[in-house]
Each structure stands twice: as structure tokens, then as C-alpha cells.
User: Fold these one by one.
Assistant:
Number 1:
Amino acid sequence: MSLMILRVGPFLYRVRFVDGYIDHEGEPCLGLCDNDAHELLVSTTVNEAQQIQVICLEYMEMCCRFVQ
């Protein structure tokens, strides 16, 4: 998959696909926004359609946090 960059306000976030589930505070998850690294992590354990859903959900959450 090609490099994907998302803009959230003045920031650019790189989408990075990772093998397996993503650990978030001891819980497995399919997507995670790393604000410090400006990355959106997406698990490859699900099919491409579900990965797109994860990206959309995480992006929406990032945008909501930015406007608060």
C-alpha cells in the first residue's frame, strides 16, 4: 500500500499499517492515533474494507479533538 498522509488542522499524520493488533494500555485495538509521533496506526488483522473504516473512525476522532 502506498504512503498515506492525513491533514488534521495544521498537522500532518502518516498512516502506518502494522501487523497484528495494536496494544493500547493492555487492550488490543484495530486503530490508534499517536499524537506524539503524528501517526495513525492501523492493524492489518482485518480486510481492506475494515481498514478503511478504522482510518475513517480514527480520522474523525482526531478532527473532533482538534476543534475542541
Note: Strands lie at 4-8, 11-18, 22-24, 27-29, 31-34, 39-43.
Number 2:
Amino acid sequence: MPARRPAPSFQIRVIGPAGWAEKLLNHLAEQATPLFGPLVTCTTQTRPARRRGHVRAYFTVTPKEEI
């Protein structure tokens, strides 16, 4: 039976111009890393949005899996 991934602690979605969304996600990552320490994994993902020049960007914080 495959191991289950831990559920995200939280996820933030940002929809807006690509440059602004990228800057905001970078800032969130910089702030979250010292706040949560080595116990979590912070990931980002960017996808196209409906409006031209806009993206849907996601910032997710997940507890690290035990090995």
C-alpha cells in the first residue's frame, strides 16, 4: 500500500499579473521559511489564468514526511 502524502497546512492562491504574483510568492517563501523552520516544505506553482498576462500562482506549506 503506497504511503499517503501529508495534507497541506495551508495554501494561498494569487491571481494577477505574472510579475506581481511572482514577487508576492517569493516574499511569502522568504517569510515562511524562518517562521516554520525545517519542519515544513514550501512549494510554489504557477499556471495560466483566464486573463491575458495574468497567472494563477499557488503557495503551499506542507509538513515534511517522516522517512
Note: The two ends are 16 Å apart (CA to CA).
Number 3:
Amino acid sequence: MKAFLLLCLYTFSVSTAAQSFAQANNSEITPKPFARKTWQLGIQGGYSKAQFLANNLTTQFYGGYYVANKLMLGASASWSGEWTQRVIETNLLSVGPAIRYQFTQTRLSPFVAAAYRFGTYTFTSQDYSSTSGNSGFRTYQNNTISGIHSRSLSAGLTIGITPALRGEVVANWQDAVRPSDGFKIGSSNFWQAQVGLSYLLLPRQ
């Protein structure tokens, strides 16, 4: 009986030690978020009242690679649209390089990001015309301006949902100009609250 109790005590001790070692080992091999060699993909968007037209909806996509802990270099794309009930709308589509810095490698992590993008701006309007005995046929006019440069600055907070999936709350500013002639798109100079999701492709240990 004494030998059996000693065997049980020995087995329990070995099991506890093995479990503690496994937990410590797992904590060592699980990489921290935003570590060097991590890839990150994300999307964020927001809705607000527009400066020029009634409504503004902006969606941004980004992706990049952490060249150092907390520092990501990559690319960003943005679509921003404004519209009214009269079927007058504008669209700004742009793509360009981006940089992002996370201040911590924790579950709650503040960050700043910037992008410089190149794209096109399209303005669509609806005109009402009339002919003899016929009032009210519609014609649509589309004007596209190329060579647009768009700057974007963001500050926000990421929230870890799982080790790889994170939510984001962001304050974003962007503008749009055409440097060749100084043309500025006033409606595309705005601040907007946005939310998003991002996914981390963590490096293998």
C-alpha cells in the first residue's frame, strides 16, 4: 500500500512538472503580435456626412510586412464615394505605399499609420433637359480627373480578438490634390471615424 501511494505521488509530480514545462514552452514559442517577419492584412471603413454632397463612405485596404518589431511597410488602397438623392456622386480611387507603427505588442495596442496614394477622381452628374412637348428626359455627365495624389494619416487602437485576428478603431484624415496644376478636391479633405479588422500571419518559430 505504501509503495502504491509513493507511485501515485511520483506520477502526479511528474505530470505536474510536464504540464508546467509544456505551458512555459508554449508561451515561449507563441510569437508576440507585430513581431518582425509578420505579415498583416486589413480593411477599415467609415460613414460620415460629406462636405460637398450629403453622404460619404470610405473603405481602405492595406497589407504589409513587419521589417522590425512594431514597424510595418506595405501598400494601401482606398475608395471614397459621395452621393445625394439626385444621383450626383463622386468617386476617388487611389493606391500607394504605406507605413504603420504599433506602439506596443500587447492585446490593446495604439498605432499610427500613413499612406501616399495615386489615383483618379470621377464626378457624375444628372442633368434635366426638355424638348418640344417633352419635358424631363435625363442625361448623365461623367468627368474623370487622373493624376490625383492622396495623402492619408491615421491614429487608432487595435484590439486582439484571437492571436491572429484583431479589431480596429481608427480616426482617419485624407485629402486629394492634382500637383500638376494645383487642383484641390475640397470634398476629399476630411476626418472620419472608422472601424476595421486585420489579420496577422505570424512567423514560424
Note: The radius of gyration is 26 Å.
Number 4:
Amino acid sequence: MKNIKNKTAYILFPILIILIFITINRNKVYRTGESLWHDIFLKNREKPRIVYNYANYLVRNNEMKKGKEVIKNLKDNDYRKYLILSMITYRQKEFEKAAYFAKKSLEYKSNYDGYIMLGEYFFRINRIEELGRVIEKLKDFHYEETRYKVLKAKYYLVKGKAKLALNSLKGAVGEEALFYEGLSYQKLGELEKAKKIYLKVKTIPTAMVNYALIIYTEGEKEKAIKILEKINDSQSRDLLKKIKR
């Protein structure tokens, strides 16, 4: 009986060690989003959607070089390859290239993300009529998520239609949506609402520049100066010069 127990233990012990090793390895994989995506990618290189999602994840986390390497697994006629290149070049502030790649993706397939990227480009270079046409194209997708809502708000604000901009932001989330909500209220003259929203925006310096401008016009010059000196970018320095004159 004792021998049977010893043999059983002898057999089970290596199995237990293997199971522990597998568990530890799996925990390492799940430790970060990047390692999880990498693990999925390694097992599914031939699946374009997986490749695109992994590259998208990398680019959104500022891993541009890795993103470029990953999309080498996509065929040259796959529209998703050019979407990633558009995202990378846009983040690198190469806006002409970003627009080129967005258009290239649209040549291969009419797609939501391609129009979003193209719309952002047209907004940046102030080609507002073309932006309007892009927004019309986006309506066909019947997919109203935050990027589309923010893009509409930008269009309406440039057109001087702050109420429509505000309405378009309903249900939108994130810092950029908050910023344009604050800007819409500012354009409408509802300054208290604008100030409250600007104070919630932490990653867009222009929000606090606008906040400083509002409180300056309300007579709080010294407070406005302190805020602008703390920001210390080109926009805040320009406003600071005007205030100190």
C-alpha cells in the first residue's frame, strides 16, 4: 500500500510542477494588456483583424515602431494597414502623410476610421467644407461614438453654431469631448458652466488658457497670470503678453 502511495506521489509530483509552471507563465501573459495582445497576436498572425487590433493597441500606447512592425503581417491591399500608418503619422504631426494614408485606406474600402482620420486632418488645416462632406459620409455608418461626436462639434464651432456643437456632444466621453463642451458654453456666453468644465480637463493645456482668459475678463488678473505662467506654452505666453500690456 505504501509503495502504491509512493508511486502515485512520484507520478503526480511532476504533473503538479508542470501545472504550476503553466499557471505562472499564463499570469505573466495576463499581467499587462500589451503582453496579452502579443500572446494573441503570436497565435493568430494570419488573422488581419487580430493584427490590426494589436497594432492599434500599440499605437494608442505610443509604441509606434512596434506598431509598424506588426502591420507587416497585413497585405498591401488591406485597408487596415493604411489606417495604422495614418494613426502613426498623425501622432507624429505629419498631417499631410496622415491624410494620404487615410485616403489610401478609403481607396481599398469605405471605412469609418478612415473618414474620422480624414476629418481630423481637414479640421486641422481649416478645410471646413471638406470636413462637412466627411461628416455627411460618416452618417452612412450609423455609428455615433465619441470621435464622431467630437468631430461634429468641431465643425459646428467653426461654423459659429455653438448650440449644435453642444447637442452633438451628448453622450460623448473623454477629455477632448469635455474641452469642446467647455468651449461651446464659452461661445454661448455661459461662462460659469465653461469654467467648471475647463477645470475638469487635465491633459489639454488650452482648457486652462481659456479658463484664465475668462477669469481675466471677470477682473481676476493676478490669478489669470499665475495660471498662464504655470502652463508656459506658446499659447499661454501669447495671452500673458496681452494681459501684461
Note: Residues 81-161 form a domain with the Serine Threonine Protein Phosphatase 5, Tetratricopeptide repeat fold (CATH 1.25.40).
